[in-house]
Design a protein that fits this description.
The complex is a heterodimer of chains A (408) and B (250). Chain A is mainly alpha-helical and 408 residues long. Helices cover 72% and strands 0% of the residues of chain A. Chain A folds into two domains: 1-209 and 370-408, no CATH class; 215-349. Chain B has helices spanning 10-23, 45-53, 92-96, 122-126, 154-162, 192-195, 202-205, 223-228; strands at residues 31-36, 65-72, 75-82, 102-104, 110-112, 132-134, 185-187, 212-216, 233-234, 246-249. The radius of gyration of chain B is 20 Å and the shape is globular. Chain A: One of its GO terms (cellular component) is plasma membrane.
Chain lengths: 408, 250
């Protein structure tokens, strides 16, 4: 990563980190006191971001699977970058969902009294499995370079030695062993990952009496949404951090295809919902299309995150700059897709008249994120960006894919 | 000449039913509530009684009374629907709880173990009746000014109401801070702490129209068992298969 770009990004993220500290301080000191959600819309911005980061892992996850399980040579130059992307996105996702818990320090309860009938338990299990797999995979992918850099006495050699867990010298046997471990981890991550994404969709789909979620289409849309946002992210990262434009161009074609299918499925969802005419479904859909935050659907998602990238990917499929812009737009605006998935369905009253009986801001279905929620989110996103760009700059994330031990 | 015969207050009968059930095999008890909508006057005494009994903070309500206006002028009427926790026999909320913090006790009452609850609010989302609310740690007296030298101020008000521990689930919950039940999902528990000592739930005793009935449906001579035989009986959202233990008389 170029020094100038690094410092520019690091400065922005550093500023975000400092400003976001105010939100984190408020969250840690006052709990959920200054949040906008309540009992009828029990989840808010932090869950939106958690869903967003779940999706962002998907594209990079697929790349690692294609590289290390199916051995697609073409992608080997972006394997480590993909594994590291999954790791950082998972880390952000976990911080976001931890923030949302009323009693974060009771997470040990998942070990003491887990309810295996709850999809949330399985979500926690698969998230942790993925986190462990990708932490180990990233480690074994960069180990050779870490040892090499430490042995060369590079600046920060002590840290590289520490990260390599004190290992000195790297033999061919080590390379074979690392290659084997990476392959085994990737093979395990394939079913774990599929279950991870599937669980996330089913998590919402199984809830009865939820107008839009309670549908067999939800897990499908979830997987597709994850592939779209995650695919766009990894395409953007490859087009920015890698010199191999061809991979970005191939991935851009896949992103274009997934975007079309995703928009089509969204259209079907709206068409069927409106045509069926069930009050709760129509109310939920109408909150998306004409509610107080309808601009997030029409302008942010459909126009900036849908049609504009599609146009760029159709008109200029060979232009790396256009590809990176298109993918960046998809990624950035995908938060609104997650928002419109989560909030409108929660905003539909389950019992007619409930809104007029007991007045309190926590007992309303209108939800607008508070400044505390935004600042804490900014803090977490900034941490994610700082970790990611630091890894790209100071760790052998990109260089380990270029020469050295061949893991594919 | 017409003469009004003396009639036993229904509360007395329910009290007797309650004591009989408690004296017998407790595992055979299935606590049940019946609400006669034709008798409900919409006074909200049950809501207020519940809030006072359980020391509920702002934004937490166990038993709101839903009001609806039906029809068009001049043919209009108002309808009131008290909505406690339905204590479903097939509860969707307990199934989604990842840590078994909410469950059915042996008498069929859906309860929350505040010390286990992690505050994920999945149960709030899963409940089809919106019967659960989350305690976000607010105080009624939070914004109350506390000027020095005044008799009535924040501290006094807090001490008078909010600093008094609630007795939910038979425990003395500490002064409100960061600890449970702050951060937890909260819900109606049929006033189990009162029932355990032979008292009826607060919403039953505060009901001015005697529209709320409580008892053991497995006790065939109890008032609730008698009422469940009425053709007016129905339950909310029966189609979901949740099988509530709260019945309504239309």
């Amino acid at each position: 990563m170029k020094t100038k770009s690094f410092y520019a990004l690091a400065s922005i993220a550093g500023l975000g980190f400092l400003v976001g500290l105010i939100g984190m301080y408020d969250r840690l000191l006052n709990g959920h006191l200054h949040t906008g959600y309540g009992s009828y819309v029990p989840w808010g911005l932090w869950v939106v971001f958690y869903l967003f980061f779940v999706g962002l892992t998907a594209g990079a996850f697929l790349i690692t699977i294609m590289t290390y399980v199916f051995g697609i040579e073409r992608l080997k130059s972006v394997g480590t970058l993909s594994a590291f992307t999954v790791l950082v996105a998972l880390m952000c996702e976990l911080i976001f969902i931890s923030m949302d818990l009323g009693h974060f320090f009771r997470v040990y309860r998942f070990l003491l009294s887990p309810n295996f009938g709850s999809l949330m338990t399985w979500f926690v299990i698969f998230t942790n499995i993925m986190l462990i797999i990708y932490a180990l995979e990233s480690f074994f992918l960069v180990r050779q370079k870490l040892v090499q850099w430490a042995d060369e006495g590079r600046r920060g050699a002590g840290i590289y030695r520490l990260l390599a867990l004190g290992k000195k010298g790297y033999s061919d046997a080590d390379c074979d062993s690392d290659k084997k471990i990476v392959r085994i981890l990737s093979i395990i991550s394939l079913p774990a990952g599929l279950l991870f994404y599937g669980t996330n969709g089913a998590f919402f789909a199984i809830l009865q009496n939820r107008p839009i979620w309670n549908s067999a289409m939800t897990p499908l849309l979830f997987v597709l949404a994850a592939l779209l946002s995650g695919g766009a992210l990894i395409t953007f990262l490859i087009s920015v951090f890698h010199s191999d434009d061809e991979i970005a161009k191939i991935l851009a074609k896949a992103v274009r295809f997934i975007l079309v299918v995703f928009l089509l499925l969204e259209f079907i969802q709206f068409f069927v919902g409106y045509k069926t005419g069930v009050t709760s479904i129509v109310t939920s859909l109408s909150l998306i299309t004409s509610g107080p935050h309808a601009w997030t659907f029409w302008v942010a998602h459909l126009l900036i995150g849908g049609l504009l990238p599609l146009l760029l990917l159709i008109v200029r499929p060979q232009d790396t700059r256009a590809i990176s812009w298109a993918c960046l737009l998809i990624v950035l605006t995908f938060v609104t897709v997650r928002y419109n998935f989560l909030i409108p369905d929660l905003s539909v009253y389950k019992l007619e008249g409930l809104e007029k009986t007991f007045f309190h801001p926590r007992l309303r279905t209108q939800y607008t994120p508070t400044i505390t929620e935004w600042l804490a989110s900014l803090w977490i996103v900034s941490i994610g960006v700082l970790v990611f760009i630091s890894g790209i700059r100071w760790l052998p994330i990109v260089s380990s894919d270029q020469g050295g031990c061949d893991h594919v | 000449m017409a003469r009004i015969l003396p009639e036993e207050d229904l509360l007395v009968r329910m009290q007797r039913d309650l004591k009989r059930s408690l004296a017998g095999d407790r595992s055979a008890i299935r606590w049940t509530m019946v609400i006669d909508l034709a008798k409900c006057a919409g006074c909200h005494a049950c809501t207020i009684g519940c809030v006072a009994e359980n020391k509920l903070p702002p934004g937490v309500v166990y038993r709101p009374v839903i009001e609806e206006e039906i029809g068009t002028y001049p043919n209009v009427r108002r309808r009131f629907l008290p909505r406690p926790c339905m204590h479903c026999q097939n509860p969707p909320c307990t199934k989604v709880c990842p840590v078994h913090a909410t469950y059915q006790n042996e008498q069929g009452v859906v309860v929350v173990n505040y010390h286990k609850c992690i505050g994920c609010r999945y149960c709030l989302v899963a409940c089809p009746y919106s019967a659960r609310t989350s305690d976000f740690g607010e105080w009624y007296t939070g914004p109350t000014p506390d000027p020095e030298g005044k008799m009535v101020g924040r501290k006094k008000a807090a001490e008078g109401y909010e600093a008094t521990p609630a007795a939910e689930y038979g425990k003395q919950w500490p002064k409100r801070g960061h600890d449970s039940p702050v951060g937890n999902a909260r819900k109606c528990h049929f006033c189990l702490h009162r029932v355990a000592v032979g008292m009826l739930p607060t919403c039953v005793t505060t009901c001015i129209g005697r529209a709320t009935f409580f008892g053991n449906r497995n006790d065939k001579v109890s008032l609730v068992s008698e009422l469940l035989g009425s053709p007016r009986v129905h339950r909310l959202k029966e189609e979901l298969g949740t099988r509530p233990s709260v019945y309504y008389l239309q």
